Amino acid sequence: MKQNEQVKVAVFVSGGGTNLQALIDAQASGLIRHGVLSLVISNNPDAFAITRAERANIPAVIISGREYPSQDDFEAKLINTLDEYGIELIVLAGFMKILSEKFTSRYPKRILNVHPSLIPSFCGKGFYGLRVHEAALKYGVKVTGATVHYVNEVPDGGEIILQKSVSVKKGESAESLQQRVMRQAEWVILPRAVELVSKEIMNTRRGDKK
Ligand code: GAR
């Protein structure tokens, strides 16, 4: 596949970036073929995800909330940067900042998010990172998992693309559950979803040209 035909993908990160790493590895192994990781944006200057991007030779740009305290200015800077790199698909991979409707409505079915639970359980405002797993354990669910979904104006409310379940072990800690959900579910379904949606975007493009 010619590189200029592939869908240019940007990954938004805030922390460790293990999901970004799963995408980088999936591109290297050929699992992601229709998309090409073209940009990483972090709102956190100290995110280890930036190092992962640099090691993979993907341009990394820091756009911090401290530098852009107004949501409007922050999102305007995001949009300029995405335009500059010709991005067609945005992946939120551990991105810990809520995006406004003004932003999400600009990219309908062009933003994906990975969430560490089986939506509609343990999702929405306030459910992120370890908190999600703490809530799942507190409730006593026997099965949890991860979801990749399109992003719209409702936090974790967009159409579901892929889900994968993970059994909860007796007496397990939130940290251990978080690790297993990542390994067994998130790192598996996020690359698959990126390939699926990139392929769809390419097919739409071809259809448009006919
Ligand atoms: C992941 O578990 C991701 O699903 C979660 O944050 C972690 C980021 O890890 N995202 C959310 O909770 C969003 N609501 P990573 O930086 O190592 O990919």
Could you say what the CATH topology is called? Rossmann fold
CATH superfamily membership, which one?
Answer: Formyl transferase, N-terminal domain
Sheet having the most strands: 7 strands, mixed
Number of helices: 6
Helix and strand element order: EHEHEHEHEHEEH
Helical content stands at 40-55%
What global shape is seen? globular
Ligands, ions, cofactors: glycinamide ribonucleotide
Tell me the number of structural domains. Answer: 1
Structural class: alpha/beta
* Mean pLDDT over all positions: 96
Low-confidence region ranges: none
Q: Largest sheet, order of strands side by side?
A: 3-2-1-4-5-6-7
How large a portion of the residues is in β-strands, by DSSP E?
Answer: 15-25%
Write a brief structural summary.
Helix content is 40%, strand content 20%. By secondary structure, the protein is of the alpha/beta class.
